[in-house]
Amino acid sequence: MKIGILVGRENTFPPALIERINSLNRGVTAEYIKIGGVKEKQPCPYRVILDRISHEIPFYRSYLKNAILDGAIVVNNPFWWSADDKFFNYSLAARLGVAIPKTVLLPQKNYKEGVVSESLRNLEFPLKWQEIVDYVGLPAWLKPHDGGGWKNVFKVKSLRELIDVYDHTDQLCMTLQEHIAFDRYVRCYCIRQKYVRMMPYDPALPYPTQYIKVKIEDYIDKDLRDRIERDCITICKALGYDINTVEFAIRDGIPYAIDFMNPAPDADNFSVGLENFEWMLTQVSELLIDYALNGVPTRKAHRWDDFLNQQIATTTTA
Ligand SMILES: Nc1ncnc2c1ncn2[C@@H]1O[C@H](COP(=O)(O)OP(=O)(O)O)[C@@H](O)[C@H]1O
Ligand SMILES: [Mg+2]
Predict the structure, then answer these.
(1) Of the four listed, 109, 111, 170, 314, which is most buried by Cβ atoms within 10 Å?
(2) What b-and-e string marks burial along 198-228, b requiring 16 or more CB atoms within 10 Å of the CB?
(3) How far, in Å, from the CA of 259 to the mean position of ligand 1?
């Protein structure tokens, strides 16, 4: 039974994970995937695939969907990852009772070539900027509705600055969000929608020093830790991610979920620190091995699985 790993340029977590899985000798081995052209009914040699990079490589995303058709379990599910976005995440979390900053989705500033005024007749123009700003308050954060790595994330102090910055966002779909003046911030790994590791984090520090070396018990009291853990699990269960990080900014004792669409979260040992790294290695290797031995194929979560089963039944009876 094999586990395949799809990676980008990260160089500490994936090799350690492969070594860990192989050294456990549980009847499951792990290796890097190597692929070229993919045929439409190509068999997938992997029972489980860990995806760390398909958000940046569309070819991998499509390859993974194809692997799912052949029965592979892909962590995280590429169909949902493709459909998901951060504004949807905020709307969902808000309805599930998780505290989030007030957030407004904004129409894009620019559109791709060929989209002209007549294509945009459903859009209000001009935008009711004052009303939007009154809702979220100032300062506020202007950030992509689907982004990562702090790219195009701006803090704006006035309506004028907001419009200036917005005018440079080109074709990105942006959100405007209430500023949470936090006194503490945590990033939480959440594995298998049930195991949570809270990591004190100072976003003001430069990469890779943000994971601050303070014990979580000395940073956040028990009641708040319980709430963060509950919220983290609620979010990850609802979204269905088996590997994710959820970031919370704490203001007046309330944890506001800020960023929780990280299905391939940073796990480099020099960034997260050795203890967190070790925790991730154990959790992810156990998750992947268990899925390889006992997991349900990802395709079971999709409508077309029924059709594929009928197809198999017809082929075998014929
Ligand atoms: N609403 C907010 N209030 C306070 N700080 C924020 C807010 N939104 C973002 N930030 C700051 O900006 C950083 C990047 O924003 P985030 O939403 O996490 O985007 P990314 O996915 O690019 O990491 C956060 O880690 C936090 O420090
Ligand atoms: Mg973030």
Answers:
(1) 109
(2) bbbbeeeeeeeebbeeeeeeebbeeebbebb
(3) 7
Residue 55 · residue 293 · CB < 8 Å: no
User: What is the rounded distance in angstroms from the CA atom of residue 98 to the CA atom of residue 237?
Assistant: 13
Torsion over CA: 108, 112, 115, 119 (sign): negative
Tokens of 281: 């290695």
- Mapping DSSP to helix (H, G, I), strand (E, B) and coil, where does residue 243 land? strand
Q: How far is it, in rounded angstroms, from Cα 263 to Cα 317?
A: 41
Backbone angles phi, psi at 263, to 5 degrees: -70, -10
pLDDT in tens, 37-84: 999 999 999 999 999 999 999 999 999 999 999 999 999 999 999 999
Around ligand 1, the residues with Cβ closer than 6 Å are 101, 141, 143, 147-151, 153, 177-180, 203, 247, 249, 258-259
Torsion angle in degrees (nearest 10) through CA of 229, 234, 238, 242: 20
From residue 247, give the alpha-carbon distance in Å to each of 78, 99, 255, 286, 293.
Answer: 22, 12, 9, 24, 31
DSSP 297: P
Expressed in angstroms and rounded, the spacing between residue 212 Cα and the centre of ligand 2 is 16
Q: Which ligand is nearest to the CA of 182?
A: 1
Q: Residue 110 in contact with residue 171, Cβ under 8 Å?
A: yes
pLDDT value at position 317? 60
Q: Which helix (H) or strand (E) holds 186?
A: strand 184-191
How many helices (DSSP H) and strands (DSSP E) are in the chain? 11, 12
Cα–Cα distance list, 201 to 55, 57, 187, 242, 249 (Å): 24, 29, 6, 22, 10
Structural domains of the chain sorted by starting position, each given as residue range(s) with its CATH number in brackets: 2-80 (3.40.50.20), 102-178 (3.30.1490.20), 181-273 (3.30.470.20)
pLDDT tens, position by position, 213-253? 999 999 999 999 999 999 999 999 999 999 999 999 999 99
